[in-house]
């Protein structure tokens, strides 16, 4: 009798673990990693972004997170889609990106904050005579918009490039 009881308990526990594992696999989200960078007059930023693995009907991927530095300053947060960075209301972000060399982001673009409380909205100004990627930079006392050269490239895991701020090696022992 104890043998059958052990067998039933073992089988029930195994089945429960199998079902829990199968259900958790359905919640796993596929992601794509990109290296990105942009430069302009007195500005340089780079890092990685994470996007959905699938594209929408216009070929855009949804950005879900960002890491990197802007002028040596750590990027701390991706602003959510549907919100505006402080100082740039009512222009809301859509956090979309696609492959290519021109128009990789939309008119709404993506936004982030830096460790010292500065904010950036990077967007593609297709309404200009010569369309360009623009950086909207705001602080508690300034508001500046300037053209930048932007490029983001999806990479394989072995190619991910996480850079240290300018002038730092990234080695904490130095």
Query: What order do the SSEs take from the amino end to the carboxyl end, as H and E?
Result: HEEEEEEEEE
**Fraction in helix:** 10-25%
Shape: globular
Class by alpha and beta content: mainly beta
Rg (C-alpha, Å):
22 Å
Give the strand order of the largest sheet, numbering strands 1, 2, ... along the chain: 1-2-3-4-6-7-8-9
Strand residues, percent:
35-45%
- Stretches with pLDDT under 50, minimum 5 residues: 22-27, 169-174
Number of domains: 1
What does the average pLDDT come to? 84
Number of DSSP-assigned strands: 9
Query: How many H/I helical runs?
Result: 1
Q: Biggest β-sheet, characterized? A: 8 strands, antiparallel, barrel
Terminal-residue CA separation: 67 Å
Structure description:
The protein is mostly beta strands. It has one domain (31-158). Helices cover 14% and strands 40% of the residues. It is built from one helix and nine strands; from the N terminus they run H-E-E-E-E-E-E-E-E-E. An eight-stranded antiparallel β-barrel has the order 1-2-3-4-6-7-8-9. It is globular. It starts with a helix and ends in a 19-residue tail after the last strand.
Tags for this entry?
174 residues, eight-stranded antiparallel β-barrel, 1 helix, 9 strands, 40% strand
What is the element layout, followed by pairings?
Blueprint: H1 2-26, E1 31-40, E2 43-52, E3 61-70, E4 73-78, E5 96-97, E6 110-114, E7 119-125, E8 132-138, E9 143-155
Antiparallel strand pairs: 1-2, 1-9, 2-3, 3-4, 3-5, 4-6, 6-7, 7-8, 8-9
Offer a concise description of the structure.
The chain has one helix and nine strands.
